[in-house]
């Protein structure tokens, strides 16, 4: 774990669809708000747009550990079986607004001709702005990390099977 890494969390779930029918970027960048909300009680809103440089962007709004987060996930790798998104996410806390760097990686690998394993991997690390935010409040980073990790890990664990089910539904519609 790097010095300012907050969370590195990865969970898997089965998708009952052949790998050739799965297209994670297509799923991500056409995910309806209702479908997104159905993947976690913490999910508030989702949409998609483009970044200033033209790359695709998924906008997700959720509450984790009592803090509202607005994530601006920009596509850095977009293959049918592997999607990597990066975000400088806004976090709204009772003591103010700050940011975290988040890397969200979704991938599938075939198990057999009809089944795949989906992996939902999330890594977050403190931005300089976030470190200053904690310093102004006298909160040691290690204390923040220890409190944040269980909530973020539980969120990822909870949403992973629902994301897999949503990707499966999309694959079977294709």
Report on this structure.
The chain is α+β, with helices and mostly antiparallel strands. It has a single domain, classed as Alpha-D-Glucose-1,6-Bisphosphate, Chain A, domain 4 (2-Layer Sandwich). 30% of the residues lie in helices and 45% in strands. The chain has helices spanning 24-28, 33-37, 128-137, 141-173, and strands at 5-15, 43-50, 56-64, 67-79, 82-93, 96-110, 116-126. A hairpin with a 2-residue loop joins strand 5 and strand 6 (96-110). The longest helix has 33 residues, at 141-173. The chain starts with a strand and ends with a helix.
Features:
seven-stranded antiparallel β-sheet, globular, alpha+beta, 4 helices, 30% helix, 174 residues, Polyketide cyclase, Alpha-D-Glucose-1,6-Bisphosphate, Chain A, domain 4
Outline the biggest β-sheet. Answer: 7 strands, antiparallel
Q: Are there runs of 5+ residues with pLDDT below 50, and where?
A: none
Radius of gyration: 16 Å
Q: Quick check: average pLDDT?
A: 96
Question: How would you summarize the topology of this molecule?
Answer:
Layout lengths: L4 E11 L8 H5 L4 H5 L5 E8 L5 E9 L2 E13 L2 E12 L2 E15 L5 E11 L1 H10 L3 H33 L1
Antiparallel strand pairs: 1-7, 2-3, 3-4, 4-5, 5-6, 6-7
